[in-house]
Write a structure and sequence with these properties.
By secondary structure, the protein is α/β, with parallel strands linked by helices. It folds into 2 domains: about 180 residues, Rossmann fold (3-Layer(aba) Sandwich), CATH 3.40.50; about 180 residues, Rossmann fold (3-Layer(aba) Sandwich), CATH 3.40.50. The protein is about 40% helix and about 15% strand. The protein contains 14 helices and 15 strands. Strand 10, helix 7 and strand 11 form a beta-alpha-beta unit. Helix 6 crosses helix 9. The protein starts with a strand and ends with a helix.
Length: about 375
Amino acid sequence: MRFAFAIVSLFPGGGLQRDCIDIARRVRKSGHDVTIFTSRISDTEFIKDLSVRILHVGPTTNHKRQRLFSTEFHKVASGHFDLLVGFDKLAGLDILYCSDRSMYARTAVSPLMRALPRYSQFIRLEKECFAPNQPTKILLLSESQLNEYWTCWQTEPKRLTLLPPTLVPKRRKFEFRADGTRQKWRTQLGLSDDDWVWVSVAVQPRTKGIDRTVRALNHFRNARLLVVGLDEGDDRALEVARLAQILGVSERIKWLGHREEIPELLAAADLFVHPARHDTTGTVLLEAIVNGLPVITTSACGYAKHVSGADAGIVIQEPFHQKTFLAALDTARDPDSREHWSKSGIEYGKQKSLYEGKTRATELIIARGLEATGRQQR
């Protein structure tokens, strides 16, 4: 079968981008052809083994880009592939792999927002995927996400599938905390034995609460922060970098950019800090847990329940207060607490279901393709 995958932006490091690429490789490994369509790509080295087509929609705003890309993708792919699979909300999809919140729900506080072009176009594309009687089957990543979309659109339950977590087994390397890898990487990063090392993984610093973490650094003099996913000079990092300068903590932050050595960096750290304002899932939370790194996060993350379920750290309940965050960090200074959380997380990581999400997504995509081609043959 021939599958067309569509994602508006393709770059290394993004969670949705990693899922798209990984699932494409799995479908191809099953003996099918996959072409990924995108409107922009920052690098080609990380996908050189895949077939990728760029649909040029010109320099424009994000909402116009998504609408134009949706139109162009449907024009060039419809009728030429057995199945159209979107990793962003687009018109005419057979399957949507949905990783974000409902824009309709996010704008519920102000109906006037929904009339603005930025939001109205996103909502229109969302409606084309989720409204009743649409053909699109939807794969969702968290219970809160599923409930939100159903509340907004009353999508038929048979069209909605909740996937298991999408952890990659090879990124579970909890032994790195004890086999010398931890000390090796701390030395490479210029960290001393006395440094209390926090790590954050984010490409959207405000959404993931990096500014909250930077403010907290000011209260813990031996704390050091590793930021994975952003370089200090990235446009998205500038606001947080300026805040760090104002607070006088810039020298205690290492901006590491995109890195593939996530298990090694998690092993080098003492605490995973993720005070996100929102995170549909927060797969990085699970990666930290199963690697034995204690976590502090917020209940705004879909996978925060795993932190509590694993007894692997602290979940700060919404609404967020910086004082509560500081109190949680103060609790995490205790080495015995961190040791307990670490052991609990490693034990929790033995569950096979934590690693089945992408396998399940691949199976569902192929099954829908077989169903579609069967209809065509009849």
